[in-house]
What does this fold into?
Amino acid sequence: MTMQFRKGGLGSSTIVVSAEAWAKRDKAAGAKRLRIDHLNMASRGAVERLAKDTSAPKPGWYCLRVMTGRENAVEKCLNAGDVESLVVMTNECKVVRRGRVKIVPPRPVICGYVLVYCSPIPAATMGLMHVDDVIDIVGGAIRPYRADEKSILRFKEMASEGKYDASVRKAHGFMVEENVRVSDGPFASFPGTITEINDEHHRVKVDVMIFGRLTPVDLDIDQIEKI
It folds into this structure.
């Protein structure tokens, strides 16, 4: 197929596009439409429809593992697709460090994760997996881990009240390789092992055991407790 265009009125050029190139373009467009259709199955409208279907899985909160630093971008993309999503954030606050007042902006309490409320049918999980910067779904796409709704509500309340803000810093007695338990958030009550502690930012990395699978999680130190 041949496409012609005139640029600046000074001359003309001819671009020859092969049938193979057109086929690739059509394939990419079709794949994009398929991803959008699948993501629609995780939308609020789909959740309402599936809630009336007794054979469909019960809707709930599920955890997407995403690229660290891209939590808000993923949430924005999901919201644009009418998918109920949540990134629990700290509050902006002021801290004094080295004699200077510093404004600490809001940040995700749990880095690298986005919560999604949907019915985990295959089409929905496939759509979620194809969102840019999404790595996987905790528990796997076939039988994803469903977080306790009461724990999610409590988690949001504590974050809103400032429990995880930078201005709230407590001494701790945790050590690397120590076995601990997650105390709140979507992974509440699960055991794990500390792999890294960042005292400056009051953060801790924990390998959490969820239904027999190790899941790396970056948490606020106040989200873990000793066993």
Summary: The two ends are 69 Å apart (CA to CA). The longest helix spans residues 19-40. The CA atoms of residues 129 and 136 lie 6 Å apart. Residues 1-7, 26-34 have pLDDT under 50 and may be disordered.
